[in-house]
Amino acid sequence: MLSERQLFILQVLIDDYIQHVEPVGSRTISKREDVHFSPATIRNELADLEDLGFLEKTHTSSGRIPSEKGYRFYVDHLLSPTILTTADIFNIQALFNEKLEETERIFEQSAKILSELTNYTSIILGPEAIETTLKHIQLIPLGSQQAVAIFVTSTGHVENRHVILPEGIAPEEIEKLVNILNEKLAGVPLAELHKKIRDELNVVFRKYLKNHQQASLFIDDIFKWSNKDKVFFGGKTKMLYQPEFRDVEKVRILLDALEEKTVIEQLLTANNDGITVTIGQENQVEAVKNCSLIKASYSFHGKHIGTISLIGPTRMEYKRVIGLLDTISKEFTNLFNARF
Fold first, then answer.
1. What's the confidence (pLDDT) of residue 339?
2. Alpha helices, DSSP H only, in the chain?
3. Where are the transmembrane segments (predicted)?
Protein backbone atom coordinates (compact mmCIF):
# COMPACT_ATOMS: atom_id res chain seq x y z
CA MET A 1 0.00 0.00 0.00
CA LEU A 2 1.27 3.45 -0.88
CA SER A 3 1.03 6.28 1.62
CA GLU A 4 -1.09 9.34 0.91
CA ARG A 5 2.08 11.30 0.28
CA GLN A 6 3.40 8.72 -2.16
CA LEU A 7 0.07 8.65 -4.00
CA PHE A 8 0.11 12.43 -4.30
CA ILE A 9 3.72 12.60 -5.51
CA LEU A 10 3.16 9.78 -8.02
CA GLN A 11 0.13 11.53 -9.48
CA VAL A 12 1.92 14.88 -9.66
CA LEU A 13 4.93 13.32 -11.40
CA ILE A 14 2.86 11.44 -13.99
CA ASP A 15 0.69 14.48 -14.74
CA ASP A 16 3.82 16.59 -15.21
CA TYR A 17 5.54 14.03 -17.43
CA ILE A 18 2.46 13.59 -19.64
CA GLN A 19 2.34 17.34 -20.15
CA HIS A 20 6.03 18.17 -20.63
CA VAL A 21 7.69 14.89 -21.78
CA GLU A 22 10.70 15.59 -19.55
CA PRO A 23 12.02 13.47 -16.65
CA VAL A 24 10.74 14.92 -13.38
CA GLY A 25 13.00 15.63 -10.41
CA SER A 26 12.32 16.47 -6.77
CA ARG A 27 12.97 20.20 -7.28
CA THR A 28 10.37 20.39 -10.06
CA ILE A 29 7.75 18.84 -7.80
CA SER A 30 8.70 20.96 -4.77
CA LYS A 31 8.16 24.20 -6.72
CA ARG A 32 4.47 23.50 -7.21
CA GLU A 33 2.15 25.66 -5.09
CA ASP A 34 0.14 22.64 -3.94
CA VAL A 35 3.24 20.76 -2.71
CA HIS A 36 4.31 21.37 0.89
CA PHE A 37 7.11 18.81 1.23
CA SER A 38 10.83 19.54 1.15
CA PRO A 39 12.93 18.47 -1.86
CA ALA A 40 14.72 15.97 0.41
CA THR A 41 11.43 14.34 1.47
CA ILE A 42 10.25 14.21 -2.14
CA ARG A 43 13.60 12.75 -3.22
CA ASN A 44 13.26 9.93 -0.67
CA GLU A 45 9.69 9.17 -1.77
CA LEU A 46 10.72 9.14 -5.41
CA ALA A 47 13.48 6.65 -4.61
CA ASP A 48 10.96 4.41 -2.81
CA LEU A 49 8.49 4.64 -5.72
CA GLU A 50 11.29 3.64 -8.07
CA ASP A 51 12.18 0.68 -5.86
CA LEU A 52 8.51 -0.37 -5.96
CA GLY A 53 8.59 -0.30 -9.77
CA PHE A 54 6.27 2.66 -10.34
CA LEU A 55 9.03 4.96 -11.64
CA GLU A 56 12.25 4.55 -13.57
CA LYS A 57 15.26 6.63 -14.61
CA THR A 58 16.41 7.20 -18.16
CA HIS A 59 19.90 8.04 -16.83
CA THR A 60 21.46 7.67 -13.38
CA SER A 61 21.58 11.44 -12.87
CA SER A 62 18.25 12.30 -14.47
CA GLY A 63 14.83 12.82 -13.01
CA ARG A 64 12.32 10.02 -13.13
CA ILE A 65 9.61 8.98 -15.57
CA PRO A 66 6.63 6.66 -15.05
CA SER A 67 7.06 2.96 -15.73
CA GLU A 68 4.29 0.91 -17.33
CA LYS A 69 3.43 -0.30 -13.84
CA GLY A 70 3.19 3.33 -12.76
CA TYR A 71 0.85 4.19 -15.63
CA ARG A 72 -1.27 1.14 -14.84
CA PHE A 73 -1.63 2.21 -11.20
CA TYR A 74 -2.35 5.78 -12.30
CA VAL A 75 -5.15 4.70 -14.65
CA ASP A 76 -6.68 2.24 -12.18
CA HIS A 77 -6.48 4.27 -8.96
CA LEU A 78 -5.54 7.93 -9.44
CA LEU A 79 -7.26 9.07 -12.59
CA SER A 80 -10.52 10.96 -12.92
CA PRO A 81 -11.65 11.65 -16.50
CA THR A 82 -11.31 15.31 -17.43
CA ILE A 83 -14.51 17.31 -17.86
CA LEU A 84 -14.54 18.16 -21.56
CA THR A 85 -13.84 21.71 -22.61
CA THR A 86 -16.48 23.84 -24.28
CA ALA A 87 -14.58 23.46 -27.58
CA ASP A 88 -14.55 19.65 -27.29
CA ILE A 89 -18.27 19.53 -26.55
CA PHE A 90 -18.99 21.88 -29.46
CA ASN A 91 -17.03 19.70 -31.91
CA ILE A 92 -18.75 16.52 -30.78
CA GLN A 93 -22.24 18.02 -30.79
CA ALA A 94 -21.65 19.59 -34.20
CA LEU A 95 -20.82 16.15 -35.57
CA PHE A 96 -23.97 14.49 -34.27
CA ASN A 97 -26.17 17.49 -35.10
CA GLU A 98 -25.27 17.30 -38.79
CA LYS A 99 -28.03 14.72 -39.31
CA LEU A 100 -25.85 12.83 -41.75
CA GLU A 101 -27.95 10.25 -43.55
CA GLU A 102 -25.12 7.76 -44.08
CA THR A 103 -23.84 6.25 -40.85
CA GLU A 104 -20.53 5.57 -42.60
CA ARG A 105 -20.04 9.32 -42.96
CA ILE A 106 -20.49 9.74 -39.20
CA PHE A 107 -17.80 7.13 -38.57
CA GLU A 108 -15.41 8.85 -40.98
CA GLN A 109 -15.98 12.25 -39.40
CA SER A 110 -15.77 10.88 -35.84
CA ALA A 111 -12.42 9.21 -36.54
CA LYS A 112 -11.10 12.44 -38.05
CA ILE A 113 -12.31 14.65 -35.19
CA LEU A 114 -11.00 12.28 -32.49
CA SER A 115 -7.57 12.32 -34.08
CA GLU A 116 -7.57 16.10 -34.46
CA LEU A 117 -8.64 16.62 -30.84
CA THR A 118 -5.95 14.34 -29.42
CA ASN A 119 -3.09 14.09 -31.95
CA TYR A 120 -3.35 10.30 -31.67
CA THR A 121 -4.41 7.67 -34.19
CA SER A 122 -8.11 6.83 -33.99
CA ILE A 123 -9.73 3.59 -35.15
CA ILE A 124 -13.46 3.01 -35.25
CA LEU A 125 -14.94 -0.39 -35.95
CA GLY A 126 -18.39 -0.03 -37.49
CA PRO A 127 -21.38 -2.08 -36.37
CA GLU A 128 -20.68 -5.78 -36.50
CA ALA A 129 -22.35 -7.68 -39.32
CA ILE A 130 -24.24 -9.85 -36.88
CA GLU A 131 -26.23 -6.82 -35.69
CA THR A 132 -26.61 -5.12 -39.09
CA THR A 133 -29.33 -6.22 -41.49
CA LEU A 134 -29.96 -5.60 -45.15
CA LYS A 135 -32.74 -3.07 -45.75
CA HIS A 136 -33.00 -2.58 -49.51
CA ILE A 137 -31.31 -3.41 -52.83
CA GLN A 138 -31.47 -1.45 -56.06
CA LEU A 139 -29.86 -2.11 -59.45
CA ILE A 140 -29.42 0.86 -61.81
CA PRO A 141 -28.35 -0.03 -65.42
CA LEU A 142 -25.51 2.06 -66.89
CA GLY A 143 -25.65 0.37 -70.28
CA SER A 144 -26.26 -3.01 -71.80
CA GLN A 145 -23.69 -4.81 -69.62
CA GLN A 146 -22.95 -2.54 -66.65
CA ALA A 147 -24.95 -1.40 -63.66
CA VAL A 148 -24.60 0.08 -60.18
CA ALA A 149 -25.81 -2.12 -57.34
CA ILE A 150 -26.93 -0.10 -54.30
CA PHE A 151 -27.31 -1.74 -50.89
CA VAL A 152 -28.81 0.02 -47.88
CA THR A 153 -28.41 -1.49 -44.39
CA SER A 154 -30.34 -1.04 -41.16
CA THR A 155 -27.57 1.19 -39.79
CA GLY A 156 -27.91 3.68 -42.65
CA HIS A 157 -24.80 2.50 -44.50
CA VAL A 158 -25.07 2.73 -48.29
CA GLU A 159 -22.82 0.47 -50.35
CA ASN A 160 -22.40 1.16 -54.08
CA ARG A 161 -20.80 -1.39 -56.41
CA HIS A 162 -20.22 -1.26 -60.16
CA VAL A 163 -21.17 -4.66 -61.55
CA ILE A 164 -21.05 -6.44 -64.88
CA LEU A 165 -24.45 -7.83 -65.84
CA PRO A 166 -24.37 -11.50 -66.87
CA GLU A 167 -24.85 -12.19 -70.56
CA GLY A 168 -28.02 -13.88 -71.68
CA ILE A 169 -30.25 -12.46 -68.93
CA ALA A 170 -32.97 -10.16 -70.20
CA PRO A 171 -33.73 -6.84 -68.41
CA GLU A 172 -37.04 -8.21 -67.16
CA GLU A 173 -35.16 -11.14 -65.64
CA ILE A 174 -32.84 -8.73 -63.83
CA GLU A 175 -35.84 -6.84 -62.48
CA LYS A 176 -37.39 -10.09 -61.30
CA LEU A 177 -34.09 -11.04 -59.64
CA VAL A 178 -33.94 -7.74 -57.70
CA ASN A 179 -37.55 -8.17 -56.59
CA ILE A 180 -36.74 -11.64 -55.26
CA LEU A 181 -33.71 -10.32 -53.38
CA ASN A 182 -35.70 -7.51 -51.73
CA GLU A 183 -38.51 -9.87 -50.78
CA LYS A 184 -36.30 -12.60 -49.35
CA LEU A 185 -33.28 -10.73 -47.93
CA ALA A 186 -34.78 -7.60 -46.35
CA GLY A 187 -34.14 -7.82 -42.59
CA VAL A 188 -31.52 -10.60 -42.88
CA PRO A 189 -28.27 -9.95 -40.91
CA LEU A 190 -25.29 -9.31 -43.18
CA ALA A 191 -23.45 -12.22 -41.59
CA GLU A 192 -26.22 -14.59 -42.71
CA LEU A 193 -26.72 -13.34 -46.28
CA HIS A 194 -24.51 -15.89 -48.02
CA LYS A 195 -26.05 -18.80 -46.10
CA LYS A 196 -29.55 -17.53 -46.90
CA ILE A 197 -28.70 -17.24 -50.60
CA ARG A 198 -27.09 -20.68 -50.68
CA ASP A 199 -29.77 -22.52 -48.70
CA GLU A 200 -32.95 -20.82 -49.91
CA LEU A 201 -32.59 -18.37 -52.77
CA ASN A 202 -30.89 -20.70 -55.24
CA VAL A 203 -34.02 -22.87 -55.10
CA VAL A 204 -36.17 -19.82 -55.85
CA PHE A 205 -33.89 -18.81 -58.72
CA ARG A 206 -34.27 -22.25 -60.32
CA LYS A 207 -38.04 -21.92 -60.08
CA TYR A 208 -38.48 -18.39 -61.45
CA LEU A 209 -35.41 -17.56 -63.55
CA LYS A 210 -34.43 -19.13 -66.87
CA ASN A 211 -30.69 -18.57 -66.46
CA HIS A 212 -30.61 -19.39 -62.77
CA GLN A 213 -26.97 -20.59 -62.73
CA GLN A 214 -25.68 -17.28 -64.10
CA ALA A 215 -27.97 -15.44 -61.68
CA SER A 216 -26.48 -17.36 -58.73
CA LEU A 217 -22.90 -16.54 -59.76
CA PHE A 218 -23.88 -12.89 -60.26
CA ILE A 219 -25.44 -12.68 -56.78
CA ASP A 220 -22.40 -14.31 -55.12
CA ASP A 221 -20.20 -11.67 -56.73
CA ILE A 222 -22.21 -8.58 -55.84
CA PHE A 223 -22.63 -9.62 -52.21
CA LYS A 224 -18.90 -10.06 -51.52
CA TRP A 225 -18.85 -6.65 -49.78
CA SER A 226 -21.10 -7.92 -46.97
CA ASN A 227 -18.28 -10.01 -45.48
CA LYS A 228 -16.02 -6.99 -44.96
CA ASP A 229 -15.61 -5.31 -41.61
CA LYS A 230 -15.93 -1.55 -41.75
CA VAL A 231 -12.86 0.05 -40.20
CA PHE A 232 -12.37 3.82 -40.16
CA PHE A 233 -9.04 5.50 -39.37
CA GLY A 234 -8.18 9.03 -38.36
CA GLY A 235 -4.63 10.41 -38.26
CA LYS A 236 -2.66 7.29 -39.10
CA THR A 237 0.56 9.32 -39.17
CA LYS A 238 -0.17 11.25 -35.95
CA MET A 239 2.43 9.10 -34.17
CA LEU A 240 5.08 11.14 -35.99
CA TYR A 241 4.02 14.13 -33.85
CA GLN A 242 4.95 12.32 -30.64
CA PRO A 243 8.53 12.64 -29.27
CA GLU A 244 8.59 8.91 -28.42
CA PHE A 245 8.17 8.05 -32.10
CA ARG A 246 10.94 10.05 -33.72
CA ASP A 247 12.28 6.65 -34.78
CA VAL A 248 10.60 6.38 -38.20
CA GLU A 249 11.21 2.62 -38.32
CA LYS A 250 9.14 2.19 -35.17
CA VAL A 251 6.28 4.13 -36.77
CA ARG A 252 6.59 2.14 -40.01
CA ILE A 253 6.21 -1.14 -38.14
CA LEU A 254 3.10 0.19 -36.39
CA LEU A 255 1.52 1.50 -39.62
CA ASP A 256 2.22 -1.80 -41.41
CA ALA A 257 0.54 -3.66 -38.57
CA LEU A 258 -2.56 -1.46 -38.78
CA GLU A 259 -3.00 -2.53 -42.42
CA GLU A 260 -3.56 -6.13 -41.30
CA LYS A 261 -7.17 -7.18 -40.72
CA THR A 262 -6.16 -9.75 -38.09
CA VAL A 263 -4.28 -7.06 -36.14
CA ILE A 264 -7.33 -4.77 -36.11
CA GLU A 265 -9.51 -7.66 -34.91
CA GLN A 266 -7.07 -8.40 -32.09
CA LEU A 267 -6.86 -4.76 -31.06
CA LEU A 268 -10.54 -3.87 -31.24
CA THR A 269 -12.23 -7.00 -29.96
CA ALA A 270 -14.19 -5.80 -26.94
CA ASN A 271 -14.44 -8.26 -24.06
CA ASN A 272 -16.69 -5.99 -22.05
CA ASP A 273 -18.66 -2.79 -22.24
CA GLY A 274 -17.27 0.55 -21.14
CA ILE A 275 -13.69 1.85 -21.33
CA THR A 276 -10.69 -0.47 -21.62
CA VAL A 277 -7.06 0.71 -21.29
CA THR A 278 -4.11 -1.49 -22.29
CA ILE A 279 -0.61 -0.13 -21.70
CA GLY A 280 2.62 -1.09 -23.43
CA GLN A 281 3.46 -4.75 -22.94
CA GLU A 282 -0.16 -5.51 -22.02
CA ASN A 283 -1.00 -5.24 -25.72
CA GLN A 284 -0.98 -8.59 -27.52
CA VAL A 285 0.19 -7.16 -30.84
CA GLU A 286 3.97 -6.77 -30.92
CA ALA A 287 3.90 -3.56 -32.98
CA VAL A 288 1.73 -1.86 -30.34
CA LYS A 289 3.83 -2.78 -27.30
CA ASN A 290 5.32 0.73 -27.21
CA CYS A 291 1.85 2.28 -27.17
CA SER A 292 -1.26 2.60 -25.09
CA LEU A 293 -4.63 1.64 -26.55
CA ILE A 294 -7.84 3.04 -25.10
CA LYS A 295 -11.11 1.73 -26.47
CA ALA A 296 -14.79 2.22 -25.74
CA SER A 297 -17.71 0.15 -26.96
CA TYR A 298 -21.08 1.35 -28.17
CA SER A 299 -24.26 -0.67 -28.18
CA PHE A 300 -27.62 -1.24 -29.82
CA HIS A 301 -30.48 -2.30 -27.54
CA GLY A 302 -27.99 -3.33 -24.87
CA LYS A 303 -25.71 -5.38 -27.16
CA HIS A 304 -22.16 -4.39 -28.11
CA ILE A 305 -21.99 -3.61 -31.84
CA GLY A 306 -18.76 -1.66 -32.33
CA THR A 307 -15.63 -0.11 -30.87
CA ILE A 308 -14.04 3.36 -30.83
CA SER A 309 -10.34 3.52 -29.96
CA LEU A 310 -7.25 5.70 -29.81
CA ILE A 311 -3.61 4.59 -30.06
CA GLY A 312 -0.88 6.81 -28.67
CA PRO A 313 2.33 6.68 -26.63
CA THR A 314 2.22 5.25 -23.11
CA ARG A 315 2.53 8.91 -22.08
CA MET A 316 -1.05 9.46 -23.14
CA GLU A 317 -3.41 12.15 -21.87
CA TYR A 318 -5.46 9.44 -20.21
CA LYS A 319 -7.80 11.82 -18.40
CA ARG A 320 -8.83 13.66 -21.54
CA VAL A 321 -8.91 10.65 -23.86
CA ILE A 322 -11.11 8.62 -21.53
CA GLY A 323 -13.48 11.58 -21.21
CA LEU A 324 -13.68 11.98 -25.00
CA LEU A 325 -14.20 8.28 -25.74
CA ASP A 326 -16.82 7.95 -23.02
CA THR A 327 -18.78 10.88 -24.44
CA ILE A 328 -18.56 9.79 -28.09
CA SER A 329 -19.42 6.16 -27.34
CA LYS A 330 -22.56 7.31 -25.54
CA GLU A 331 -23.45 9.54 -28.49
CA PHE A 332 -23.03 6.57 -30.85
CA THR A 333 -25.24 4.41 -28.65
CA ASN A 334 -27.92 7.11 -28.52
CA LEU A 335 -27.70 7.58 -32.29
CA PHE A 336 -28.24 3.92 -33.13
CA ASN A 337 -31.02 3.39 -30.63
CA ALA A 338 -32.83 6.51 -31.85
CA ARG A 339 -32.51 5.68 -35.56
CA PHE A 340 -33.19 2.00 -35.63
1. 64
2. 4-20, 26-30, 39-51, 68-73, 86-97, 103-118, 171-185, 193-196, 202-208, 212-222, 248-258, 261-268, 318-339
3. none
